[in-house]
């Protein structure tokens, strides 16, 4: 069976990219990473792509007169590589509405909170300040509205006494590395159906895997 062609957009460290590369390195995984694009030449994730033998490309947003021109350049490269799914993995540029609309249903993001709580930046600080007892991460379809698209998979962790932002972030990150490949697999297997504002996951363990992480 042909594997789903995935492009990953990054800006930095790329640990979620690594999780996707590791998953795609297994022959039974139904998706492959065909291209990594970074808006920053110094992103460590580009090293990870190179080490995995995956094409890496820098499209520096500062080289374009405006957001639309940058988005167009990205769109052209994504089409050129035949991407069927775009994964944002720590990609720190806002994408314009035309780009988000063009890739609607074919572009996903991982966000470090249990959406719809704690959109935007500093999500672990937001969680600590809110005093929530459960925190986590979400993989969702990208829409023109920030961190607002249909949720595909979530993973939860407890907030523990004595947590600071770094400890909480590290606990969430281990779960991010599990749910991002899971979400890609579910999409590649055709088990995710978009229905209005909702993403429905069909069959298998997709739904239950979204519940509390049993490791904690
Ligand atoms: C992750 O916490 C992800 O949820 C957020 O940005 C961070 C990227 O980390 N969108 P990495 O570059 O994947 O290590």
Fraction of helical residues? 25-40%
Strand content: 15-25%
Straight-line N-to-C gap: 36 Å
Ligands bound, unique: 5-O-phosphono-beta-D-ribofuranosylamine
Secondary-structure element pattern, one letter each: EHEHEHEHEHEEHEE
Radius of gyration, CA atoms, in whole angstroms: 17 Å
**Which word captures the global form?**
globular
The parts where pLDDT drops under 50 for at least 5 residues are none
Assembly form of the protein: single chain
Mean pLDDT: 94
The SS-based structural class is alpha/beta
Entry summary:
It is built from six helices and nine strands.
Provide key terms for this protein:
about 220 residues; alpha/beta; Rossmann fold; 7-stranded mixed sheet; two-stranded antiparallel ribbon; 6 helices; about 25% strand; binds 5-O-phosphono-beta-D-ribofuranosylamine
Describe the structure in your own words.
The structure is a single chain. α1 runs parallel beside α6. The chain has a single domain (4-212), classed as 3-Layer(aba) Sandwich (Rossmann fold). A seven-stranded mixed β-sheet has the order 3-2-1-4-5-6-7, with helices on one face. With 216 residues, the protein is an alpha/beta fold. It is 32% helix and 24% strand. The site of 5-O-phosphono-beta-D-ribofuranosylamine has 13 residues, from α1, β5 and α6.
């Amino acid at each position: 069976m042909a594997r789903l062609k995935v492009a990953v957009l990054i800006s930095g460290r790329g640990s979620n990219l690594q999780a996707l590369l590791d998953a795609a390195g297994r022959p039974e995984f139904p998706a492959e990473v065909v291209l990594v694009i970074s808006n920053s030449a110094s992103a460590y994730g580009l090293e990870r792509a190179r080490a995995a033998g995956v094409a890496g490309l820098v499209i520096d947003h500062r080289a374009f007169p405006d957001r639309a021109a940058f988005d167009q350049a990205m769109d052209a490269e994504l089409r050129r590589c035949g991407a069927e799914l775009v994964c944002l993995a720590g990609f720190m540029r806002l994408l314009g509405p035309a780009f988000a609309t063009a890739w609607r249903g074919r572009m996903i993001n991982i966000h470090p909170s249990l959406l719809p709580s704690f959109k935007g930046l500093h999500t672990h600080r937001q969680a600590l300040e809110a005093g929530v007892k459960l925190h986590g991460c979400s993989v969702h379809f990208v829409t023109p509205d920030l961190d607002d698209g249909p949720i595909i998979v979530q993973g939860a962790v407890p907030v523990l006494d004595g947590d600071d932002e770094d400890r909480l972030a590290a606990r969430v990150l281990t779960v991010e590395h599990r749910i991002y490949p899971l979400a890609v697999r579910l999409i590649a297997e055709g088990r995710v159906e978009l229905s209005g504002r909702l993403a429905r996951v069909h069959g298998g363990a997709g739904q239950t895997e979204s519940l509390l992480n049993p490791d904690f």
